[in-house]
Amino acid sequence: MSIFVTQSSIASMEEYTEEIRSIFESKRMTNMGPVYKKLQHQLIDYLGVPELSLFVNGHLALEMGLQTFDFPKGSEVITTPYTFVSTTHAIVRQGLVPVFCDINPCDYTIDVSKIEDLITDQTVAIMPVHVYGNICDVEAIQDIADRHGLKAIYDGAHAFGVKYKDVGVGNFGDMCMYSFHATKVFNTIEGGAIAFKNKQYQMRLHELKNFGIHGEDCVMDVGGNAKLDEFRAAMGICNLRYVDENIAKRRIVAGKYDELLSNIPGIKLMNVSDYITQNYAYYPVYIASQEYGESRDDVYNRLAKNDIHARRYFFPATNDLDCYKGKFEIQKTPVAHDVSLNVLCLPMYADLGLDDVEKICKLILKK
Ligand SMILES: *Cc1c(COP(=O)(O)O)cnc(C)c1O
């Protein structure tokens, strides 16, 4: 049977049917109804964040998060190219200019020692990414943001439920985006959220995701439509009941990989700080081809021949994507470029069997 890089977690049909019953009775299917509010409050509790606004997906959450600040068009946002295309697109689609900072070779998050050199009088924000659930150096980033009067807006799409020094990751910076896409640790089919502290953002985000409508006859903003509907919220309520169990299962899978792939010359596992309570969202391995004797793509292809579909994630780096060709210089982010060429994300999901993990590791090690 095929093994893919991920498999969505989904509660039972019976449970979902029970959860959507009230929607059929009220006929209220969207526009921040009671099921939306129930999920919103459950997530505020679960994530340990002060405020949360739910969206139809993480990408639009990121765009509307940026829009909240009314940055002048053409302003610069310091970010990294080692991310999913969404982060860079959100900046560009909001009329802002991404300025790419390189990443750390150990945990693939933004290299904070390189941020300040990139700040100009056009810089308005830093948008770092909690890659694979690794938490950026949030303290150093806050310090830089404070000293230069910049906003810190995190792409926390990978970091659902992750804690740093026992604090929910959504508490850091001005905003933190979560993605609830079907492939993430927690899902609402499609969905996402922005966590924040400043209560004033709640109303603004609410309006931005509802066309900018302020009152019956008053449209204050050029908003869009990014509302999480009641059916997706209901799926979230069901799935949230299992998220701890699923993270515990992922942890066992990760432990098995660690056991089988540690201390192999040329294979570098992710370096996770002791301060982080992980969610085991991904299992990336870095293949140093010189030392290993094979390239990342050799391993990727061998797995694929055996019907095991790992993913070159993230590849290419976003400053090397076709749509941005000629706009950025990838030589300026050499670590991100190198990592994008050498990292492979192995299959990782709650229901992945340990026998499958053994099979995958055997194939990786069979040179
Ligand atoms: C999934 C993801 C997004 C986008 O989230 P959607 O909910 O799919 O719109 C953004 N950034 C990163 C790093 C992601 O992995």
Account of the protein in words:
By secondary structure, the protein is of the alpha/beta class. Helix content is 36%, strand content 16%. It has twelve helices and 17 strands. Strands 2-10-9-6-5-3-4 form a seven-stranded mixed β-sheet, with helices on both faces. It has a three-stranded antiparallel β-sheet with strand order 8-7-14, with no helix packed on it. Helix 3 packs parallel to helix 4, helix 3 packs across helix 6 and helix 8 runs parallel beside helix 12. The mean pLDDT is 97. The chain binds pyridoxal-5'-phosphate. Pyridoxal-5'-phosphate binds next to helix 3 and helix 4.
Features:
367 residues, alpha/beta, seven-stranded mixed sheet, three-stranded antiparallel sheet, 12 helices, 17 strands, binds pyridoxal-5'-phosphate
